[in-house]
Each structure stands twice: as structure tokens, then as C-alpha cells.
Amino acid sequence: MIRISLSSGEPLHLKPSPNRKFTGLRIPGSNLFSSDRAGQTIYLHLYKHHLFTLTLRQFQFAKTTQVITTEPNNWLRLEIPLCGRLSVISRDGKEILLEPGTYHLYDQPVFASNHAEGETCTYASLHFSPELLAGIGSDQAVGARQPGPVPKDLLEMLYDILKCPFQETLRDFYYANKVREILFAHMVSLPIVLPGELSPEQIAQMYEADRIMANNLDGKITIPELARRLGTNFVTLKKNYEKVFGIGLFPRLMQRKMEHIQLLLEKTNKPLKEIADLAGYQTLPGFINAFRKRFKVTPNDWRKERRGV
Questions:
Q1: Do 234 and 192 meet the contact criterion of CB atoms below 8 Å apart?
Q2: What is the structure's pLDDT at 207?
Q3: 183 and 211 inside one domain
Q4: What phi and psi, each to the nearest 5 degrees, are found at residue 163?
Q5: Within this chain, do residues 183 and 257 fall inside the same structural domain, yes or no?
Q6: pLDDT of residue 250
Q7: Which of 40, 52, 57, 238 has its CA 20 to 30 A from that of 177?
Q8: How far apart are the first and last CA of the chain?
Q9: Ramachandran angles phi, psi of 147, nearest 5°
Q10: Which pLDDT score is estimated for 139?
Q11: 154 and 214 assigned to the same domain
Q12: 21 and 159 co-located in one domain
């Protein structure tokens, strides 16, 4: 089990919590552990497999705090901040700062991290076992790497994990494939140059916008509300988002929503009304019309075609 303590050595005890009552970002099928006492909030979502481990960690402290994390093994980890800054202290004492839109691979099992006063930091970690790394069938070694821009397809695969629609054994199989796809996406990614006109803070803000959209495909948040949440305005949000992602906010939101609908139609037996509700459509006819307008076929006929019926 992951152990977390203050820099003073005082342990921060994580207790099992009911996952079904948790309303924030989560890993479907994971176990939830939390520590919630005066001045601090910690949530840890943990999904264990013999070849990999998935975690989603959230920290918030009332005052600037340094914590020490001890991983249960020395597996290579890929870490992606989704909200807030992840400040890690390396072996040589240097601070490694990651913001949304960046990631790194890390192999230090015990590390310190600094957390700013009142700031929520949420980050995902994918742990790769030596067996998984040995079985990828490539001569290219996979090891620690310095922070850099996260490839967009890699980020989408992580969002796929956080939206997994499957249960039990199928979920294991789905995650195992996604973890390998993420590892492959990292290995073949070309150097990325972030938009030079924007500051690192503005770029991180756009990745935060992207994460919020990916986690709210049900239409409960509008683009103006998204701008207000990020402390910017509608025009600036639209302009900067397109600079970072090469696509407009609304087209990207609709694209992601329709991709999720297609996944639910093809891979689950959920009725159309439930899928319409999950996608934020107020009526079933409205959902059917929107789907048919985009794909020139009804959702039911699309499902039959994909299943060879």
C-alpha cells in the first residue's frame, strides 16, 4: 500500500472509503482511500493488477505542506497532473515542476512533493511492472524521462480509462490494453513544442479546461461556466484552447461526446434512454436526431451495424 507522511515523519493515515459516494474524478472499479482531517484533504483511487497499477491522487492543504510518498515497489511510473501543479523533489534535491499538459516517467520509490496553500493537485500515476516492460517486444529501453509536453493521444487514452464503461473481468482486459497503448504512445511520440505565444500558466489552464470537459460529457457545464471556473473569459478561452489543441472548444466537446456515445452503443447493452441521459440530452428524440445528423444513421441502427446484426 502507498504510504504518505508529512516531512516531519508524521504519517497521514489513509482509510478505506465508500467509492460509490464519491462524486469527483475517479478510476472505475478502483478502491478509494482518504484522509480528511482539519487542514487537509487526500483522496487516493487505487486499481491493482499484477502487471500494472493505476492510481489517481488528490491533495489539498490549508497551508503550504511537504509530504513524503513511499511507493510499495520501485516500478517505473508515468505521472500526469490533471489539476494543479505537481512539485516533486528529485534524488539530487532539485524541484521537478509538472503542470497540466506535461508528464514524466519516474523511478524513485520514495519522494517528497510540495503542495501550495489551498491549491488542489490531482494527478494520475500508471505503474508498469518489470514483467510488463519485458514483454513489450521492443529493443528500445523504457526508463525515467524528464518532464515534457504530454502527447494528446496519450492524454485521450488516460481519459478513456477514467470513463471505462466495462465491469469486472472485461474492465481488467480493457485497462491492460489501454496501459500498453499509453506506453506505446510514449515510446513513439515525437518531440512536442508547446505554443510559444502562451505562458506555461495559460497552457496549463487550457489542459485544465480539457480535463473538465472530458469529465463533464453530460452537458452539466457550459463553455461560459467553464471560462468562469478557470478565471478567464469566453473569448480568451476559445482562442487559447484552439492554439493548444488545434480544434475549437465546441467541436472538440461534441467530438468527444459522440466518441463516448459510440463506445457505449458498441460495447455495452445500455438502453438508448440511459445513454442519452449520460450524454446530457434532455429527450430521447433530441439524442437520436443529433446522432443521426452527425452519422447519417440512427443510434440503434449504428449499434446493429457495429455488432454485425
A1: no
A2: 87
A3: no
A4: -115, 20
A5: no
A6: 86
A7: 57
A8: 46
A9: -60, 140
A10: 65
A11: no
A12: yes
Record the pTM: 0.79
Q: Residue 32 forms beta bridges with which residues?
A: 17, 45
Is the Cβ–Cβ distance between 214 and 260 less than 8 Å?
A: no
The per-residue pLDDT for 195 is 66
Angle at the Cα of 54 (from 142 to 48), degrees rounded to 5? 110
Low-confidence residues in the chain, pLDDT < 70: 138-140, 190-195, 309
Backbone dihedral region of 278: left (phi > 0), alpha (psi from -120 to 50 degrees) or beta? alpha
Q: Please, how many CA atoms are within 13 Å of residue 198, restricted to the half-sphere of its CB?
A: 21
CA dihedral 120, 126, 129, 130 (to 10 degrees): -100
Percent of the chain with pLDDT over 70: 96
DSSP structure class, residue 118:
T
Residue 29 half-sphere exposure toward CB, CA atoms < 13 A? 20
Tell me which residue has cell 478557470: 230
Rounded to 5 degrees, φ, ψ at 46 are -130, 125
Answer yes or no: are the C-beta atoms of 299 and 287 closer than 8 Å: yes
Q: Which domain holds residue 81?
A: 3-188
Give the position of cell 471560462. Answer: 227
Closest by Cα among 66, 67, 61, 64 to 2 = 67
